Amino acid sequence: MGNQDFFYERKKGLLLTPEGEAIVQHAERVIERERQIQERLEAQDGVVRGTLKIACASIVAQMWLPRVLKEFIKAYPDVHISVVTGWSSEIHQALVDGSAHVGIVRGNIAWKSVHKPLFQDKLFLVDKEINRLEDVLDSERPFIQFQSDSNYYQVIQDYWQRNYGKMPRQAMVMDQIETCRQMAFNGIGFAILPEVTLMDASDDIHKIPLVDKTGEILSRDTSLIGYEQSLALPQVKAFLGIVDKYLESHN
């Protein structure tokens, strides 16, 4: 059977026919099945190698995960690492379809298998000018927010309504938390950011904790989730051990 049965010829290259797409999909399933068998064999041997596949919330992947992976690579240099980032819904799907062994998510997420709390992030109002929460509602400074698929916005909205009766003036909405962070760090306006994003904040930036009327500081949870079968793999168990050591040494 010739190539014409699997490809359409185009000026800029070849395009798969439906028959060609079917063959590619079959090959991908065979490769994935072979990978799963290899992982099971390695799990039986207790050998720490193979690939560690992590799906992680973007801000955690930027600010926290590299420090953990640095220690992991030192301890287990034979393990290959794959990291994808995204919103919680995308991380959830990556676990369901098997493209990730573990997921690291922000906020509350409905997950019926293994759910391991990692750390709590205190929330801070960050600005170069405002240095008291009480001044926010009278300020003309723009409130810079970022989009999220979690309940982050609702948490902030509830806080302002509960403590001040209304929301600050909203002027900017960024599609990424890093853009929001850079806007605040460069004096464009104020933002509400988790503590994990403030590790490299300069001294001229005011960082005001969001304290509730009860005296509690508003915070966000970061958790590790996964299926028991995946978490039993040697490379995943090794990663969990490194995570525990890192958290113990940074509390």
From TrEMBL:
CDD domains assigned: PBP2_LTTR_substrate (cd05466)
SUPFAM superfamilies, per database record: Periplasmic binding protein-like II (SSF53850)
BP term (GO), one: regulation of DNA-templated transcription
InterPro entries hit by this protein: LysR_subst-bd (IPR005119)
This protein's record includes keyword Transcription regulation: yes
Keywords: Transcription, Transcription regulation
Residues of the LysR substrate-binding domain: 47-243
Membrane-spanning parts: none
Molecular-function GO terms, alphabetical: transcription cis-regulatory region binding
Family of the protein in this entry: Belongs to the LysR transcriptional regulatory family.
This protein's name: LysR family transcriptional regulator
Organism this protein belongs to: Listeria riparia FSL S10-1204
